[in-house]
Amino acid sequence: MKNLSLRQVVNKFFEEDDFSRNIFYNQSLPTRNVKCQLKLKDDLILSGLPFVESVFSELIGENFSIVDASDWEGRKISKSENEMIEFELPFNVALSGERLALNLLQRSSSVSTYTNKFVKIAEASGIKILDTRKTTPGLRFLEKYAVRVGGGYNHRMGQTDTWMIKDNHKSFFGSLKDALEFFNKMGSFYNSIVVEIHNTSELEEAISLGVKHVMLDNFSPEQVSEAISLKRDSMTFEVSGGINLENIKNYLISGVDGISIGKITYDAPSVDISLKFG
């Protein structure tokens, strides 16, 4: 069934909206079709239409599709164009799903739009923009999706996708070497290891231990350049920490492979989208 996984998640969101509490209300709503207009009222990268379709599919009990949705998804929209997407739904379905559909569409579009601002600045350098695990609880699947629609790349979906050695690991195990040994003994043949690095001496130690993937955390541009001079063939250098639209250009340094930015998911400004019935 189309978008089965999305519909399973959407059903849980309806529980939050207390949708089943008043059966009389649900059964009393008129069922005649109404024309619906999704009005795109901001400069934005539109994303999240599969979530809108899944919301209404759950209410209808069968697959609902927006005509030409694939042509709209990921499209750059200008506020001055007064663009809208039109479709028809039974009034009871449109009314019951309106807020949830808009919440998901606006959140996805907001993250895609903000991500794309960073991507456009970095694209000439060839440096990838990555998200982080700093996502809204319960919405990671949507926000990670939105990052990709906006032109960014996903870091880890969860803690076990890639082992990342952070400060707390080093502190608990006593050293970077001991933490590295712990993860090497996990027996995960395909899992790579990324080490969070905080200074040049720690980077030198990581290199001596054969680490291939490092994240330079809260390095200044000058420190990043110094670190790049130590980079070995086949190594991956990621930069993270305090990077925003105002200073990202300073970090577009040859030798950097990716820049991870938590702000693209936890601090994306909202875009304006409405749903009206005719």
Rg over C-alpha atoms, rounded to the nearest angstrom:
23 Å
The CATH class name of the largest domain reads Alpha Beta
* Total strands: 11
The fraction of residues assigned to DSSP E strands is: 15-25%
Q: Give the SSE string.
A: HHEEHHEEHEHEHHEHEHEEHE
Secondary structure category = alpha/beta
CATH topology of the largest domain: TIM Barrel
Number of helices: 11
CATH architecture of the largest domain: Alpha-Beta Barrel
Weakly predicted, low-confidence segments: none
Shape: elongated
Mean pLDDT: 94
Q: Give the biggest sheet.
A: 6 strands, parallel
Helix content: 40-55%
CATH superfamily of the largest domain: Aldolase class I
Strand order of the largest sheet: 5-10-9-8-7-6
How many independent structural domains? 2
Note the gap between the termini: 30 Å
Task: Give an account of the 3D structure.
The structure is a single chain. The protein has 278 residues and is α/β, with parallel strands linked by helices. The protein folds into 2 domains: 119 residues, Aldehyde Oxidoreductase, domain 3; 147 residues, TIM Barrel (Alpha-Beta Barrel). The protein contains 11 helices and 11 strands. Strands 5-10-9-8-7-6 form a 6-stranded parallel sheet. Strands 4-1-11 form a 3-stranded antiparallel sheet, with helices on one face. The chain is elongated.
Strand-helix topology:
Blueprint: H1 4-16, H2 23-28, E1 33-40, E2 44-45, H3 49-60, H4 69-72, E3 76-77, E4 84-90, H5 91-122, E5 128-130, H6 140-149, E6 163-165, H7 167-173, H8 176-184, E7 193-197, H9 200-208, E8 213-217, H10 221-228, E9 236-240, E10 258-260, H11 263-266, E11 273-277
Parallel strand pairs: 5-10, 6-7, 7-8, 8-9, 9-10
Antiparallel strand pairs: 1-4, 1-11, 2-3
Helix pairs in contact: 1-3, 3-5, 5-6, 7-8
